[in-house]
Every structure is written in structure tokens, then in C-alpha cells.
Write a structure and sequence with these properties.
By secondary structure, the chain is α/β, with parallel strands linked by helices. The chain has 14 helices and eight strands. α4 packs across α11, α6 crosses α9 and α7 packs across α8.
């Protein structure tokens, strides 16, 4: 999809004095809210929306520091604050309850939202949770060299300066399983969104999130042991980063979770196997509604 068409579907919503890009396709149907990954945007979901939009309300947004959302220089970009921004956005949109779907970076934002729910703070009720290919168990993840460099608090900003479109596209292609399904135009669009609004200037701050997964491990992971909602672990099995061992561990520790495997698929199943991924979400949400 052309980026202008994507942008025209949404609007900027002011949340805590910053603007978030959001698409809200509102219907009198159950609402699915999506949290996207790193280093991409809500554009990740453009292929799956057509499979779901007739039967569900859809909400997607760009996290602060991503895509068309604001990218303030003086900001921490903590996953904890990203959770606060998401909750407040949903509240402003008038949402009462949602089925939450999270991928990659977004899975830990979802984890923080679950922590708050368990503490009694749930302004928007979470009806079900879907977790897809996120390195929540950071100790099991197989981070690429570029990820390790970018998360360094000092050297990360110098690594960012060396990044360019060709290397970005090469890195993204390396995490696809079926290279024939890799769409270079999609990646050029993601690169454009990464650069939008001086995005390179804040990328090293955004890239610290994997350090938070270590720092707050004991805040986030134990909350999964007492999850009391329908939970789908929807995992592409050939992800070289968020490897299937993470999904297996999540399935062990989340009570009554459902584990669905997507074979022959890499880190971005919503792009590489869009119809399969969307249909699994459909089935799960319909059972959980």
C-alpha cells in the first residue's frame, strides 16, 4: 500500500502532549487493537486489516518515536511510557474493551499493560491477548549483531549514523523465511517511515528497549504466570530472533494458553503469511468475544 493512502486512513491524536498517528476503523463490532514492533510501524498490519475489517473494529497506532507519530528528542522512550500512551489513546478513542494483539516490541508493551491490569488499573478492559514473535524472554532471544550494537547506550547513536536504506533492507530480508515473499517496496516504505520527522535522531533512544527487558524482567515475566484471560501465542516458527523456544516457554507459564504455530515463516508473519496470521486471530477473537 502507498504510504499516502495509509496516512490518509488515519489521524494524529494528542496524547500526553505528544501526537500519535492512529487509524480507528469503528464498527458496532468487537474491537481488536494492535501493537506493532521495532523498527517498523502500524503499517506492518496493512495486509491483515482487509481480512478482519468487515467483522471487527480495528485500532492501530504508531508508538511515540515511530512512523508518523511525534519523535521528541527529549524523551526516554521507555516501554513503560509506551504502555501509558497506548492506554490513554484507547481511552480517548472511547474504547471500553479490546482484544489486544501484539508483535515484537509491542509484546512487552502488552506485558506492561497486563501488569497494570493486575494492579487494578484497567481503564480499557482487555478481553483477550495475542502474543506474536516478541523477545519477551530476552534471555532466550537470538539478537542480531546490529541489535546488540544499537542497544548500547553510548555506541548506539554512532551505529545509527552509519545506517542506510540498503543495509536496512538487507537486515530485514534476513529475518524472512520465504524470500520469495519479501517485498522490497514494503521495506522502502518502512525506511521512509523510520526517517520521517528526523527519526534517525531518536532511533538510538528507541533502541534501548531490549535493555529494559532485562532490567524489568522481574516486573513483567511473573505477571504472565497469573494471566486470567484467553491468551493466544501465535508464533512464526522460523524466526531467527524471537525463536520458537520463547513461544514454548510462554506456553508453559501462561495458564490455559493456546499455542498456534505458523510454519515456514520468519519474524514478520503479518507480512509474510498475512492471510494465515489474520485467520488465526479471527478464530481466536471470535471464541473469546
Amino acid at each position: 500500500m502507498d504510504l499516502n493512502n495509509w496516512k490518509n486512513k488515519g489521524k494524529l491524536v494528542e496524547v500526553n502532549k505528544h501526537k500519535l498517528f492512529c487509524i480507528h476503523q469503528k464498527k458496532d463490532k468487537p474491537t481488536i487493537a494492535f501493537l506493532h514492533g521495532y523498527p517498523s510501524t502500524s503499517y506492518d498490519y496493512y495486509k491483515i486489516i482487509p481480512f478482519l475489517e468487515n467483522d471487527f473494529s480495528i485500532v492501530v497506532h504508531d508508538h511515540l518515536g515511530f512512523g508518523f507519530s511525534d519523535k521528541p528528542l527529549n524523551y526516554s522512550y521507555s516501554l513503560i511510557e509506551q504502555a501509558e500512551m497506548a492506554i490513554e489513546l484507547w481511552r480517548q478513542l472511547g474504547l471500553k474493551e479490546i482484544h489486544l494483539v501484539a508483535h515484537d516490541y509491542g509484546t512487552t508493551i502488552a506485558n506492561e499493560i497486563i501488569v497494570r491490569k493486575q494492579m487494578g488499573y484497567e481503564p480499557v478492559k482487555i478481553k483477550s491477548l495475542t502474543l506474536s514473535n516478541g523477545s519477551m524472554h530476552i534471555e532466550l532471544a537470538k539478537l542480531k549483531v546490529i541489535q546488540k550494537l544499537l542497544k548500547h547506550p553510548f555506541y548506539g547513536k554512532f551505529v545509527v549514523k552509519l545506517m542506510h536504506k540498503t543495509t536496512f533492507i538487507q537486515q530485514m530480508k534476513s529475518i524472512w523465511y520465504d524470500k520469495s515473499r519479501f517485498d522490497e517496496q514494503e521495506m522502502e516504505n518502512l525506511w521512509t517511515l523510520l526517517l520521517h520527522n528526523n527519526g534517525k535522531e531518536t532511533l538510538h533512544k528507541v533502541s534501548q528497549y531490549n535493555n529494559e527487558r532485562v532490567k524489568y524482567w522481574h516486573r513483567w515475566i511473573p505477571a504472565l504466570y497469573k494471566l486470567d484471560m484467553p491468551t493466544l501465542i501465535l508464533w512464526a516458527q522460523n524466526d531467527p530472533i524471537a525463536v520458537k523456544a520463547i513461544a514454548e516457554q510462554l506456553n508453559k507459564e501462561i495458564p490455559n494458553s493456546t499455542y498456534v504455530k505458523i510454519d515456514n515463516c520468519g519474524h514478520y508473519p503479518m507480512l509474510e503469511q498475512a492471510e494465515i496470521w489474520a485467520n488465526e486471530i479471527r478464530k481466536f477473537v471470535e471464541l473469546s468475544a
